[in-house]
Target: Phenylacetate-CoA oxygenase subunit PaaA
Amino acid sequence: EADTLERDFQHTVDADQRIEPRDWMPDGYRRTLVRQIAQHAHSEIIGMQPEGNWITRAPSLRRKAILLAKVQDEAGHGLYLYAATETLGAAREDLTQKLLVGKQKYSSIFNYPTLTFADVGVIGWLVDGAAICNQVPLCRTSYGPYARAMIRICKEESFHQRQGYELLMTMMGGTDEQRAMVQDAVNRWWWPSLMMFGPPDDASPNTEQSMRWRIKRHTNDELRQKFVDMTVPQAEKLGVTLPDPELRWNAERGHYDFGAPDWDEFWQVVKGNGPCNAQRVAHRNRAHEEGAWVREAAAAYAEKRARGLDR
Ligand code: FAQ
Model:
């Protein structure tokens, strides 16, 4: 009987139909989804820190309002994604705990510092750009609640990407010093952005099975290539140089050739040894402790309401 269930499941997936929370699914499929979606949710929540660092120092009221709204959107994305894991039977408290003690990962990209305001623009342009490349195909992922969450998230991400690009365009039209700030930020964020897509396919243990289950719709290297192809013309228009001497158009392939990121650095960051890993996790722990009274008050209120005492 288990065989029939598994066969029917794969049939549904192969027919490009969605798997819904009450459908039978293999344990490995459920585990992989909880892993990937939780990691994605944690990335949104930790990802609030690098840009949050600049909210109090934004150069104008307009830039401050925009940045506040973007960072709030990221909190929202984290919440929808945690809700998607709950449909798989995960408990949000448990996932939060695993993030706080370093047992679950979040994206490597958020372990790099934001040194100037140009970093805010470059995060919008490159980091949100990479996020969109990776996430648009996830709107067609086989698990229904994840696919549906991705539709709204992608709409907001493309708005974020445009605000980053517009910020950079404005800075590039400014002084020499501002242009140098943008170039410096691009130099620092380019390679980490390429690493967001994960290890090369031949070093990616999860890709093959995730493709068969149609959780992932493209491999890590396919999406990285797509990102490079999309970004090079944007860099030219902006007037910045991407820091890769091997980057050039390959007419035969119809794609840009590009150099390899430093994969040792990537694994170091993933293992917790990046420039800001300790700071990011410590900050999240502090925020969690400082928010304890809010959780207690909300739980007390919910209990009171359940007993009908608020009326
Ligand atoms: N960082 O076998 P694979 C955002 C881990 S966008 C850290 O290839 P998989 C928006 C991987 O987990 C960022 N760890 O794994 C935003 C696995 O370890 P595990 C979030 C990484 O899952 C913008 C191991 O390496 N986006 O937040 C990374 O098939 C601006 C082997 O790798 C998503 O999460 C990495 N870069 O493919 C917010 C998208 N790459 O778990 C604020 C959804 C790999 O076995 C500001 N996720 N690892 O212990 C995915 O598409 C996939 O999970 C991949 C990795 C492509 C990231």
User: Anything to note?
Assistant: The pocket of Phenylacetyl coenzyme A is lined by residues 35-36, 39-40, 43-44, 47, 74, 105, 107-108, 123, 127-128, 131, 134, 195-199, 204-207, 210, 216, 220, 270 (CB under 6 Å). The longest strand covers residues 248-250. The radius of gyration is 21 Å. Strands lie at 248-250, 255-257.
